[in-house]
Each structure stands twice: as structure tokens, then as C-alpha cells.
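S1.2 Input.
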Amino acid sequence: MLLSVGGDIVRIQSAFVDTPEVEKVIEFISNQQGFAEPFFLPEFHPDGEPGGGGNSRNSAWPKWTICWKTPGRLVVETQHGSTSMIQRRMKLGYNRAGRIMDQLEALGIVGPAEGSKPREVLFYGIEEFERFMVELKARR
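S1.3 Output.
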């Protein structure tokens, strides 16, 4: 569709809905019966785990030594805490790398996300990281 606005012609690539039509739709929806209470969906727990893989330090532990030690070491060695770096270096998909980064945050290895910037790495050397891993294993 081409629309003439103040002498300029603008190309519009969707259906044109005029203001009175929008107002009619809004009025129709507002006249609908509402519900007294919201309906909450059940919480998702992957692999049938009770409690799922939340953001607590305890939930990060069971798979940590097997799955997260290599990416943790990689993040500390490079001092670059980004999901895309884990994806490239470990040949993982974005979702898996993102979950790993969330677990590293839950364990206190990297800081919180700050938009598109890499996360702050909270360990400054591999020795400090290794000591943390030994202490973490001893606490469990």
C-alpha cells in the first residue's frame, strides 16, 4: 500500500486499520467477561528433577564438575565472560552456552549480565579458580 502523508508517499506493508476500527476492537475486548483470579502455569522442571535447574548455588553443583568445569576454566583463563565465546570455543549452541553462563553466575564465577557486554570475571587467576573448585567440592 502507498500512503500519502503531507505530500510524502510512504510504503506500508500491512493491512491498514483506521482509528475508529481500532476503537471498536478495544471496546469489544473491554466488554468481555474477565476472570476473578489469574491462571498460573505449572513450573517447568527439566529431566524430571524436583526443583529444576534454578539459580541457587546448590542447584548448580550436581552437574558442575562434569559439565561446567571446562567452561569455567576457559572463562577464567581468557578473562572474557561471554556466552558467544563459550559457544565458539566449546562448539555449543546458544541455549546450552547461556545455561552454562547462568550457572557460572550462580556459583559466583562471573558477574551479572550487562546487556551485550561480556560479564565481569570474578576470579583473576586459574589457581584461585582451582582452589574455589576444591573448596566447593569439600562443602558438598
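S1.4 Remarks. The first strand starts at residue 2 and ends at 5.
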